[in-house]
Design goal:
The chain has one domain: ABC transporter involved in vitamin B12 uptake, BtuC (Orthogonal Bundle). Helix 2 packs antiparallel against helix 7, helix 6 crosses helix 7 and helix 7 packs across helix 8. It is an all-alpha fold and 156 residues long. It has eight helices and no strands.
Length: 156
């Protein structure tokens, strides 16, 4: 049991998800998407640089603090539920930017959709690859992430 617990927290998984703790995942997801959606115009202004955003009336330091705190709370809620699942946060924004561009309105929703599909597909692979045993989902996402990063590096 102790070995499984260590493996869960280092490689992540959705095996402990249940209806009883669904609220924790929902809070984390809603907080992340809500933050990105409600601050999308301010975050778009930051794309032009700090001076441009400041000239548009945005308090950059306060915006960064708000985004940092809300994203940290969202991440804490989701990691508490699923453990550490690597490379999803690296791959998904790149794929979403490729599809919809850099504006945060479409980027937030597209990232959420791609992240959900990627996580569900990785979970399906992790449960069926070595059936009846379950492979930690972090191993599947790390393998995908390594190939993704290698592709990015070789492309440049």
């Amino acid at each position: 049991r102790a070995a499984y617990s260590v493996l869960f927290w280092t490689a992540g998984g959705l095996g402990l998800a249940s209806w009883d703790n669904l609220f924790l995942g929902a809070i984390g997801a809603l907080l992340a998407v809500g933050t990105g959606w409600s601050l999308r115009h301010r975050l778009d202004a930051l794309l032009g640089g700090e001076e441009t955003a400041h000239s548009l009336g945005i308090h950059v330091a306060r915006l960064r603090l708000i985004v940092f705190v809300l994203c940290a709370l969202s991440t804490a809620a989701l990691v508490a539920l699923s453990g550490v699942i690597g490379f999803v946060g690296l791959m998904v924004p790149h794929l979403a930017r490729f599809l919809v561009g850099v504006r945060h309105g479409g980027l937030v929703l597209t990232s959420a959709l791609i992240g959900a599909v990627l996580l569900l597909a990785s979970d399906l692979v992790s449960r069926t690859l070595l059936a009846p045993q379950e492979l930690p989902i972090g191993i599947v996402t790390s393998a995908l992430g390594a190939a993704f990063v290698l592709g990015l590096v070789l492309r440049r």
